[in-house]
From TrEMBL:
<dbReference type="Pfam" id="PF13599">
    <property type="entry name" value="Pentapeptide_4"/>
</dbReference>
<protein>
    <recommendedName>
        <fullName>Pentapeptide repeat-containing protein</fullName>
    </recommendedName>
</protein>
<dbReference type="InterPro" id="IPR051082">
    <property type="entry name" value="Pentapeptide-BTB/POZ_domain"/>
</dbReference>
<dbReference type="Pfam" id="PF00805">
    <property type="entry name" value="Pentapeptide"/>
</dbReference>
<dbReference type="InterPro" id="IPR001646">
    <property type="entry name" value="5peptide_repeat"/>
</dbReference>
Length: 195
């Protein structure tokens, strides 16, 4: 069943279980979705501004081109989800867990993602401008084409991550842990000749 343009603003939907539901252009602004569980659901162009998704669980669900503005995402779990083109602004990420998720083209500019486990994520062409990824675990993540101007990756684990030359020049990588391949690419991106 497809729900289009439904108004769920300020709705109390905490602790519910949704499976294979489809939403397009729905407004969840200010809704209490704490403890919500979704499996195989799709949300296209939906708004979750100021919504509470704390302690929610999402399995194989898609949140494509959605808006998360000042959304509470604390302690939420996302497994095999697509967040393609979704925008996150001033949202609380404390204790969030993202596993095998696709955040390609997502906007996480200025997001506080300190010390989060983000390994193996697909972040192709994501906007991570001025994001704080200090101490984050990004092992094996695909950051190809990601915008990392002013991003803080100090102490981050980037072993096995895919980064292009632009990312290696734009981000603050002091103290980041990298593999030999990334170290050589970093040197080349900064004009060094490695022989």
């Amino acid at each position: 069943m497809l729900e289009t343009g439904e108004d769920y603003r300020e709705a109390v939907l905490s602790g519910q279980w949704w499976e294979k539901r489809r939403f397009t252009g729905c407004d969840f602004t200010g809704a209490d979705l704490s403890g919500l569980r979704t499996r195989g659901c799709t949300f296209d162009d939906c708004v979750f501004s100021r919504a509470d998704l704390s302690r929610s669980r999402h399995d194989a669900s898609a949140f494509r081109s959605c808006t998360f503005d000042r959304t509470v995402l604390v302690e939420s779990r996302w497994t095999a989800c697509s967040l393609l083109g979704t925008s996150f602004t001033d949202s609380g990420f404390g204790g969030i867990a993202l596993t095998e998720c696709d955040l390609s083209l997502a906007s996480l500019a200025k997001a506080r993602l300190r010390r989060l486990g983000l390994s193996g994520l697909r972040l192709r062409e994501a906007n991570l401008t001025e994001a704080d990824l200090t101490g984050a675990d990004l092992r094996g993540s695909d950051l190809t084409g990601a915008r990392l101007q002013g991003a803080k990756l100090e102490g981050a684990d980037l072993r096995g991550a895919r980064l292009d030359a632009n990312a290696l020049v734009q981000a603050d990588l002091r103290g980041a842990e990298v593999d030999v391949e990334t170290a050589i690419a970093f040197a080349a991106a900064h004009g060094l000749v490695v022989r």
